[in-house]
Amino acid sequence: MKPEELFEMLKKTQEPKGYFFNKDKERVLELMEALLTNKARYGYMACPCRLAWGDRENDKDIICPCVYREPDMKEFGSCYCNLYVSKEWNEDKITHAYVPERRE
After folding, report:
1. Can you give the pTM of this predicted structure?
2. How far is residue 9 from each of residues 2, 4, 25, 40, 47, measured CA to CA in Å?
């Protein structure tokens, strides 16, 4: 699968849920490439912005979309990677604040 294909597939399933991709498409495609690399490496799409253990059980919280996405989106309008963002974030209606790491 190519990054553009993953982008289109995820866009169709995530936008109806209110999760939009960052308007910086170049950055998004880089993250898609990293997700595909992690899938080839580990067998699952571990968050490209965090260090994966390479063990599905230990990494289950960071399989994209990670369990931290929802609280990050509610608080900051963006996930940790800035991959998924709110419509307001993309329209610059809210501040693009730094999203702190929630994973212990």
Report:
1. 0.93
2. 11, 9, 15, 18, 17
